[in-house]
Write a structure and sequence with these properties.
The chain has eight helices and six strands; from the N terminus they run αβααββααβαββαα. The strands form two sheets. The chain has a four-stranded antiparallel β-sheet with strand order 2-3-5-6, with no helix packed on it. The chain is elongated. By secondary structure, it is of the alpha+beta class. The N terminus is likely disordered. The chain has one domain: Outer membrane efflux proteins (OEP) (Up-down Bundle).
């Protein structure tokens, strides 16, 4: 028998059995631990480490002599006799070219480190968002469980009132429908949590089944004035990019200096004795326009990077102002539901349940008050989630690096 042929109830039982087994194997971790794992496991950061390593290794290429020239000549170049000539010549860079190359590679290694810092910043933001997204799912799941308890009690009261003839069957049917609706939502929430867990695991990039510690406060602990980190990282990156172009321009200018060549030769004359000698010379770049143009292009790149930095500073400033306004809005909204709304919801539920159980309230009034209280509780969960999202976005504003 295939899964497609199984009854719906059986499929649900299988699903919950799998989810239950899956949950038992999960390790609960703090946000700090999740960030630690992400920074040690994340493939993008490992690639960034390899780029730093590569640029560091390339420092050894700063000294770049020309290939060794070895030449053999044989024939009648001295007399009618067949003589031999072997010569070896090597040209070496002189001037500041080696120093310029080394400085350029050092700046490229630093740039790779700055780029890794940006990647680590983006990863920290992504992990934090995913972590609190899961906690939001947990809060909705707890609310669903609370609603299930409320409506289960309501169903018992409705059935009792129906048996005693105090109410009609409509109350029982309505209560059963609501309990079934909540049960269906519970199944969907289980899937949502599984999705949120995989999102977190994707960023942490571990084979372990990890989930956030549910004892963590549902409200993100926002720290004031931490958003300056984004501007510092962005500024460091572009300033380092400028340093690379400056050294690149210096390298192109240094390439206009001559190269010193040293050589050795040995030959026979009239097939007699081996005669030896040494040579010295210079390679002079008479046509240095190519390297001059490249140096000018690097200077233009410096201007481009400075303009990009200025532009992204403006973008970041405007972004932070927008995020700050949204944060204050969500903060005020959350404060209401925490300080007043939540208490109102609990009072409404408690009073309505007592009044309905004592027969002092009609079924329809009870349902109306109950839905009002439930809506307030949902709004509290949403307000907390929206606050967390705005706080994390404000603490980790998006950095443009192009």
């Amino acid at each position: 028998m295939t899964f497609a042929n199984l009854p719906l109830r059986t499929l649900r039982l299988i699903m919950f059995a799998l989810i239950s087994t899956f949950s038992q194997a999960q390790e609960k971790i703090s946000l700090e631990k999740a960030l630690e794992l992400a920074k040690s496991n994340n493939i993008d950061l490992k690639i960034a480490d390899k780029e730093i390593e590569k640029q560091t290794v390339l420092k050894k290429t700063a000294f770049q002599p020309d290939p060794l020239q070895v030449q053999y000549q044989g024939g009648q170049f001295n007399s009618a006799d067949f003589d031999h000539n072997v010569s070896v010549q090597q040209f070496f860079p002189i001037g500041n070219i080696t120093k310029a190359n080394r400085q350029l590679q050092e700046e490229l290694a630093k740039l790779a480190a700055k780029r890794k810092a940006l990647s680590a910043y983006e990863l920290e933001k992504a992990v934090t968002l995913a972590y609190y997204q899961y906690l939001y799912g947990v809060s909705i799941q707890k609310l669903n469980s609370e609603l299930n308890d409320i409506y289960t009690k309501f169903l018992k009261n409705a059935e009792l009132r129906f048996k005693t003839g105090e109410s009609g069957n409509i109350e029982v049917i309505s209560a059963k429908a609501k309990v079934k609706e909540i049960d269906t939502q519970r199944e969907q929430l289980a899937f949502d949590l599984a999705i949120y867990q995989k999102q977190l695991q994707f960023f942490v990039q571990t084979n372990e089944e990890i989930i956030p510690d549910e004892t963590t406060s549902l409200q993100y602990p926002f720290v004031e004035n931490q958003e300056a980190k984004a501007e510092n990282l962005m500024t460091d990156f572009y300033q380092q990019q400028i340093s690379v172009y400056q050294k690149e321009a210096g390298t192109h200018k240094a390439m206009r200096t001559p190269k010193l060549g040293l050589g050795y030769f040995a030959q026979t004359i009239n097939t007699e004795s081996l005669f030896q000698g040494f040579t010295a010379g210079l390679q002079i770049p008479l046509f240095g326009g190519v390297n001059t143009s490249r140096a000018q292009a690097s200077a233009i790149s410096i201007s481009q990077s400075q303009l990009a930095l200025d532009k992204n500073r403006i973008i970041l400033k405007l972004q932070k102002e927008e995020l700050q306004n949204n944060f204050k809005k969500q903060q005020k909204n959350l404060a209401y539901y925490q300080n007043e709304g939540s208490q109102y919801a609990d009072q409404i539920i408690e009073t309505a349940q007592k009044s309905y159980a004592n027969g002092d309230m009609s079924y329809w009034s009870y349902i109306s008050f109950l839905n009002q209280a439930i809506d307030i509780k949902k709004q509290l969960a949403e307000a907390t989630h929206n606050f967390n999202q705005s706080a994390i976005e404000l603490q980790f504003p998006t950095i443009k690096n192009n």
